[in-house]
Amino acid sequence: MEKTSLNLIKLDTTNEKYLQDIIDDKYFGYPLAPLLTAESRLQDKEQSSVAYFSMEFGLAPSVYHTFKSANPLSPANLLARHEVFSNMKDMDYYHFLPVNKMLDLPIYSGGLGVLAGDTLKSAADLGISLVGVGILWTKGYFKQKFWFRAGGQLPDQLAWDPHSYPGLIPLKPKVKINISGQELTLKLWKYYIYSHDLKQVVPLILLDSNLEENPEYFRDLTDQLYRSTNGWIKICQRAILGMAGVKALEALGYNINKYHLNEGHAAFAFVEKAKTENPEKLKKMFAYTCHTPVEAGHDRFDLQELQHTLGAEATEIIKRFGRDEKHPNQGNLTLLAMSTSEHANAVAQKHGEVTRLQFPNYREKIQSITNGVHTHTWISQSVRDLLNKHKDVLGEWENYPNLLAHVQNLKSDQKFRQDLWQAHHENKKILAKFLESWYFDEQAFTIAWARRLAPYKRPGLLLRDTNRLLDIAKRLGPIQIIIAGKAHPADVPASIHMDEMMEKITMLNGERKSLRICFLENYDTYFAKMLTSSVDVWLNNPLPPFEASGTSGMKAIVNGVLQLSTLDGWVVEAADMKIGKIFGYVPPPGKIGDENDLKMDEDAEALYKSLEELIPLYNKKDPAWIDMMINCLAASSFFNTQRMVAEYREKIWQV
Ligand SMILES: *Cc1c(COP(=O)(O)O)cnc(C)c1O
Question: Within 10 A of 613 (CB to CB), how many other CB atoms are there?
């Protein structure tokens, strides 16, 4: 291993164990050369580069680009057993899911993090000079344990081992910021994201406060993602991401022209820069993506507490650019990010309209760039193999996912139609095998609802009227339902939804001939890939207009899996593409409405009616069903991060 290469990487070589994995021309089994190119490009003063800040990154390395290490995988980094809470209680007691794989890098909680991860992957695919900035959460988000006696979840701490996680390396430089009058030192880590063809790389820097030289109360600051014990911790976590993040980029010698804030959590990056540079000039270098129309998603902090924690200089800047008009004693990170960024964007067309209503003062600057997913991460092997047999029609779709639109030209190809049904059933077979202890049947109509359990996403809608559901199953054929998702431990309404769902599932015990319901413990990107590629219908039923975009349905369509969705987020843009069935409440134009008025009864009935239409089509293998599967694949030519990142590059970064 050459010294100059190690210098470029800035690896901390005090622990020689890492040198076994970075050897000759390999980095944990992957080619080293593109990594060195990316590093020198970021350090090149002539080159324009982007820094992408995000509180969380979901990289799904257990299902895509898994690094290989010469060191054995620590048991702490193996996925623990997963339980199932079903209406087949006798099975729940004796079985758990047969999972035996590496833990996904646990520095994300849900869709926002997965989007950030997919963004880095597509930036690598497109060869953009970009670096991610995030936090190494030493206890991850949290581990969900089911509470079998009474239903519901018990949040458990996750203990994983960063020191033996394949691909994760400690760096030599450290950075310091001042918190509450004391010095906080941050250790830096690096993780590399390879393009799908392994020819290009994007690095991710992760900050970590768990250092012996820090006092105890500082060491825990980066332990748990979205820990909300008190305001001070939240301010500190945001200062680490934004302020220490800026210092980390400097310490690594990166020449950054655009600071992209994925959500307002990172808004203190501007504050740090504005301490030494002209704020008006700085604005041109900042861009901000706003992700949530839900009020609780916007960070607000007491100005006095900000002053105590971050000092007078920082607080003056926050007051100047992020004072909340409605709450004059608070600094608002959404407003701060909005007013200090030359470009701001919402994450779908509809979300753009809602965001402009919420922030009328910034109407002009708010663009819409619709989210996507990383095609190579989420497409299943069977569908990929099938598409590759049709390169005469689809061309180099793996390099240019927009070419998937041509799949429409295969609609009249009977062999293709048959093969697509077959490819789907290969995936479904994997799921049936996975759940065989719960009598899962590869033939039966299967639907999934899986994502964060947030009230506006209405996790309990499908189970609203279980008698009605049972009646449908008895008349039209058996139904299998898979549910998965975590409720943030402090989100009481979400936990109540979960308790109610489990109570209903319990009441259906004994109905397994018609209705099999499995709630899977500890949803993560591994399950996301398995479920989005294997069920027949992907259910998405947020209360419009509160879903900014949603992305899990995009993972499903790239596998030809139909959507059953309310008209919200990205689905508004796909409404005419015939990718399944749209149902439910539509808000009047120009109104945001009330996120607490969930409209459960009306929309549950609309959902049951939709199921009555869809189930017979599936059970008959109706040609209209296969048409919709093909429409799904065609739609994924647009809803991918390659298109999305290219839009960011053109409209915002201009690098
Ligand atoms: C994709 C993904 C999500 C996002 O789901 P939405 O339906 O967009 O809310 C959440 N969690 C995990 C683990 C995911 O992979």
Answer: 11
Domain that holds residue 531: 375-586+599-639
Q: Which atom of ligand 1 is nearest to the CA of 569?
A: 8
Torsion sign (Cα): 148, 151, 155, 158: positive
Q: Beta strands 153-156 and 143-146: pairing type?
A: antiparallel
Answer yes or no: do 441 and 548 share one domain.
yes
Q: What is the pLDDT of residues 566-576, one digit of tens each?
A: 999 999 999 99
Beta carbon of 642 within 6 Å of any ligand 1 atom: no
Q: Considering the domain boundaries, does residue 591 fall inside one? A: no
Determine which residue's CA is closest to atom 8 belonging to ligand 1: 550
Which pTM was predicted?
Answer: 0.97
Residue 379: φ, ψ to 5°: -75, 140
Distance spanning both ends of the chain, measured CA to CA: 32
Are the C-beta atoms of residues 426 and 382 closer than 8 Å to each other? yes
Ligand 1 atom closest to Cα of residue 550: 8
**pLDDT-based confidence at residue 64 (cuts at 50, 70, 90):** very high
Identify the weakest region by mean pLDDT among 154-168, 285-299, 560-574: 285-299
CA distance 245 to 243: 5
Residues 295 and 415 in one domain: no
Tell me how far the alpha carbon of residue 111 lies from the centroid of ligand 1, in angstroms: 4
How confident is the model over 480-532, as pLDDT tens digits?
Answer: 999 999 999 889 999 999 999 999 999 999 899 999 999 999 999 999 999 99
Q: What is the DSSP string of 347-397?
A: SSHHHHHHHHHH-GGGGGGEEE----B-HHHHS-HHHHHHHHTTHHHH-ST
Share of the chain above pLDDT 70, in %: 99
Mean pLDDT, rounded, for 281-298: 88
Q: How many residues does the chain have?
A: 655
Q: Are residues 121 and 162 in the same domain?
A: yes
Would you say the CB of residue 569 lies under 6 angstroms from ligand 1?
A: no
* Cis bond upstream, residue 545 (ω within 30): yes
- Averaged pLDDT, 540-555: 97
Number of domains in the chain: 2
pLDDT score at 79: 84
pLDDT above 80: residue 150: no
The CB of 552 under 6 Å from ligand 1? The reply is: yes
Question: Quick check: helix, strand or coil at residue 405?
Answer: helix
Two tokens, residue 118: 């997919």
Q: Please, what is the angle between helix 466-476 and helix 600-619, to 10°?
A: 10
Q: Of 409, 412, 416, 414, which Cα lies nearest the Cα of 388?
A: 416
Q: Please say whether the beta carbons of 375 and 558 come within 8 A.
A: yes
Name the phi and psi angles at 121, rounded to 5.
Answer: -65, -45
